[in-house]
Amino acid sequence: MKKKLLFLAILFLVSVESTKANNLNYNDSIHIEIQKDSIRLVELDRYWDAYVQAVKEGDFEGLKALYHKDAVLVKAASVIQTSIPIDMALAEWKEGLDNTKKGKEIAEVEFRFSQRIGNETTAHETGIFMFTTMNNKSKVKLKYPVHFEMLMIRGSDGWYALMEHLKSDATQEEWDALN
């Protein structure tokens, strides 16, 4: 009987210690993943800051550098729904960027996110962006919010957009809700 009790006591202690070790490893794993995700989000925030700055300055080459060379723009929010290589999209945006650079107009973009999914090398960012253009006297010419998704990868020197999906027009209320 004493041997049975001793055996049960040892078995109980081993299972408790094993459970503690497993919980510690699980909690450590969660902590490491949270740290990695925080680093990824800081890096992605830098990406979006660079995007905002490129639009504000009319920096065509700076904006182009934020996209992978094989990136695609999906336009579902426009009258003509299509998918085009990013080089074609950039060509469409070039005149506006040049006008901004020359001071003929002011352009701004702001991003708000509803979902940010990813790991160390990939990201899928979802939200709304507000694009605004003004004449050089700051009178608003165009202001519109658009639901978007951006699929991204991390390269050796930073993040790049692989796919930008302009999903649909957004309302001011939807924009305000993401604040």
Q: Can you walk through the features of this model?
A:
By secondary structure, this protein is α+β, with helices and mostly antiparallel strands. The chain has one domain: Nuclear Transport Factor 2, Chain: A (Roll), CATH 3.10.450. It contains four helices and six strands. The protein has helices at 2-57, 60-64, 86-101, 172-177; strands at residues 67-75, 82-85, 105-118, 122-135, 140-155, 158-169. It has a six-stranded mixed sheet. A hairpin with a 3-residue loop joins strand 3 (105-118) and strand 4 (122-135). The termini are far apart.
N/C terminus separation? 68 Å
Specify the biggest β-sheet.
6 strands, mixed
User: What best-fitting shape do the alpha-carbon axes yield?
Assistant: elongated
SS elements, strand count: 6
**Alpha plus pi helix count:** 4
Mean pLDDT: 87
Helix and strand element order:
HHEEHEEEEH
Strand content: 35-45%
